[in-house]
Batch of 2 targets.
Target 1
Amino acid sequence: MSEQLSSAPDISRTVKKWLKKRGSLIMALHEIQNTFGYVPRSVSLQLAHLMDVPLARIYEVLTFYNYFRLDPPGKNTISVCMGTACYLKGAPKLVEAFAEELGVQEGETTPDGQFFLQSVRCVGCCGLAPVVVVNGTVMSKVDVSQVKEIIASCMQKEEV
Ligand code: FES
């Protein structure tokens, strides 16, 4: 089984990238949503701290624009990194395998609302490619043979 790096996503790289730019808060929020499929509250709290912005200001932005989601588009969000390193190490095959196993296309939620599958740009740990982020947990060096296992473990957590 691949290594789980952390259950709390590290957004310091995103913050560093946008901090001194114009519209930094909104750009950081865009990147976060693109990575996770929505903006988790735990990430908003981190962002408020790292950018020194009141949490209320972040929620003002999040609720003003329809684009942002505060809840996951499926109970489980599977994000396959399609950045260059992951792409070269087989990410397209992972997207295909998840899509086939779940019976959806990339960018769709399963009819039962259990899984949302998306491809995302580089999540910042290219040395661990190919990377899949499952409900905010980064999984490294994922192989197609693990796809069923990853889906099953999400379902098991559901049952507990
Ligand atoms: S390309 Fe996938 S983590 Fe950078």
Target 2
Amino acid sequence: MVGSAIVREAASRGGFHTITADRGELDLCNQAAVFTYLADELPQIVIIAAAKVGGIHANSTYPAAFIYENLAIAANLIEGCRRAGVPRVLFLGSSCIYPRQAPQPMPESCLLGGPLEPSNEAYAIAKIAGLKLCQHYRSQYGLIYHSAMPTNLYGPGDNYHPENSHVIPALLRRFHEAKQRGDTSVTLWGSGTPRREFLHVDDLAAACFHLLSLDDPPDWVNVGVGTDLTILELAGHVARITGFTGAILTDPSKPDGTPRKLLDISRIKASGWAPQVGLATGLAAAYEDFRTSIACGRGRL
Ligand SMILES: NC(=O)c1ccc[n+]([C@@H]2O[C@H](COP(=O)([O-])OP(=O)(O)OC[C@H]3O[C@@H](n4cnc5c(N)ncnc54)[C@H](OP(=O)(O)O)[C@@H]3O)[C@@H](O)[C@H]2O)c1
């Protein structure tokens, strides 16, 4: 999802020759292949958007794969970039690098201030390692390797898989299917009260180019919208957009996770970037993407 948005953003800005490789061409867990690829291509900028990504179910079922593959992707690419003399690297982490009980909204300074949320600890540790690799390569080698920590993302190209998806694509699918079946209600996992923040992927792509334009970017910086809403409120938006008119119920017997997860985005805002895509507009576009994926039988369903 993010890689495609970055390619679209580069094309719309112009002036970039974009090089991409999918997993079939280059397995980023294969260190020798990554080193050779970078030495052959000699890019001027590398944006590390590839990762093993998933929702709470996937993270808690496959923690070994989440830590190993994400560590390998970060280490292989960052060291490969150094060896190939790549002057600029932007590594994408995630807001789940911050402690479970971080102050809200979460400033960059709360990194490593307490225990992580256990359900995605493996993923978070690998993302913290990627951020720290960039920070220490910058300090030791003088290379401008830096990181961005996006909040929850959504948009075209999202993963709509029934078990491995994040909350917005999961809700789009559930409400769409409930409407098609004529269900009278949809039951949300948990109490519906946790508050979450959602950023459209096109806003993240714009933020990446903004950060890459800075001569002295922060080692890591939060990228979010700065406001949040409850899961129940989000479900109400999704119901409206999908045309589902039944009841929205909650199931408080299921775990809720952290009550609130909101990024403090004052640092990136002060550097001259702000999100542009409102939630209602972004959700409507995401639903169109989902419907097109279903109609064409393409995408991650
Ligand atoms: N989505 C979010 O809500 C969110 C939130 C915060 C941060 N992020 C971060 O943003 C970045 C992009 O996420 P996304 O949502 O765009 O995820 P995504 O749609 O799942 O894209 C990840 C891409 O990485 C590729 N990949 C994974 N392992 C690979 C490997 N070993 N070799 C080659 N390619 C590999 C995947 O290829 P396959 O399709 O072949 O698996 C996929 O194309 C990630 O770093 C993620 O941690 C995402």
